[in-house]
Amino acid sequence: MNRGIYIVGNDRVMENAIALLNSIRRYDKDVTVYLIPFNDDYQQISEILTTVHNVQIFPDLELLSQFTQKIGEIFPQDFLALPNKMRKLVAWFGPLDEFIYIDTDIIVFEKIADNLDKLAEFDFICCDYHHKSEGLRNVFSPVVREKEIFTEAQLQDVFNSGFFASKKGCITAQIMEDTLRECATHKEYFDFSCGVTDQPILNYLILKLIDKRCNLVRVPGGEAGSWAGSLHFQEKNFILFDNKQQLKYVHWAGMKMKPGTPYYKLWEHYHHLHEPKRPLLQRLLSR
Question: What is the pLDDT of residue 282?
């Protein structure tokens, strides 16, 4: 069985991607990682990540192109702020049988691929407190509750789309297309007010199509939160803790990485983990 990690990126997010891959490789030197190009501007990030961290490029670029074209056909031009963010959905049709998807504005604090073992019980896994801290904001509008599109129990399963795990085949291409077309006819269901793109649509897909879901923070003895906007986390040996509970990862969702951003020095630590290799990185960047 092929297991591993997908990320989406281009040259614009290269520095974040370097920090993320440094953290992944800090705890797991062997896990397979695929880069799904966000657009055609990915030559620099590709060269650095493939050379330094043995990242592979998503092998079916034709599928990726066709999927992007299909998204453009399904959704009206003014529907999605950044349509290419939907490219993460090809994870269900890629080479990995079981996968974790991770946004590039994340760093991890453990051998993150071990979480794939939980897919023996579930078809979809996430690990965040969006349901508690944000409710339906940046996911669904009040219309979804008013029209009872989902039950209250289902609405407790909303999640941040920056980190999740699932299985190839549990959503087929045709069912995904049909459900995306359903989304495109009901813009009133979604909360795009803060500029999100994929998160509302992905939540709709998962709540509609996958019944065996698990948010790891909601199970007995569950995991800590992950949002960098939670300022009470404590750092020890370059790992964040919520009281005495270690975080799996920290996610700077909605934040720009710059001095003054919460936990910026921690991000810098992981960004520079391979400092001895910086001359190589600089040579690659100068090409």
Answer: 59
Average pLDDT over residues 151-165: 97
pLDDT value at residue 1: 84
Residue 147, token pair as written in the block: 């029209």
Calpha distance 245→64 (Å, rounded): 39
pTM of the complete model beyond 0.70: yes
For residue 36, what are the β-bridge partners?
8
Among candidates 31, 200, 5, 193, which has minimal Cα distance to 91? Answer: 5
The region that residue 17 occupies, defined by phi over 0 for left and psi between -120 and 50 for alpha, beta otherwise, is alpha
CA distances (Å), 138 to each of 48, 89, 130, 196, 201, in order?
33, 18, 9, 7, 10
Q: Give the rounded percent of residues in the chain with a pLDDT score beyond 90.
A: 90
CATH architecture for the domain at 3-286 = Alpha-Beta Complex (3.90)
268: three-class secondary structure by DSSP? helix
